Amino acid sequence: QVQLVESGGGLVQPGGSLRISCAASGIFFRIYGMGWYRQAPGKQRELVATITSGGGTNYADSVKGRFTISRDNAKKTVYLQMNSLKPEDTAVYYCNAAASGTRPVDGYWGQGTQVTVSS
Q1: What's the pLDDT score for residue 36?
Q2: What's residue 43's pLDDT?
């Protein structure tokens, strides 16, 4: 059974930092592309960042220079380090795992972790 379990969300002040994690089980983690997506109230789910099995990364323009995605294949975990957080970063953040050749939408999803940026 495949499971993606996110953790580390919470409330942070504008300008602050937060690191969220996603622990995977039930998949051969090292061959999967991993990603973080987010969904704010009333908005569609959007890409935040992805990392390929080879370590290549891609970021949404809105988070470039502020967020960093990384992975630890030994721990089967993907991370999202978020710095200089803004209120508009408030959303539920979802972890995604997609095998090579599979669209993320057809991959596996975690249950989400809430990130709230507010003073």
Answers
A1: 98
A2: 96
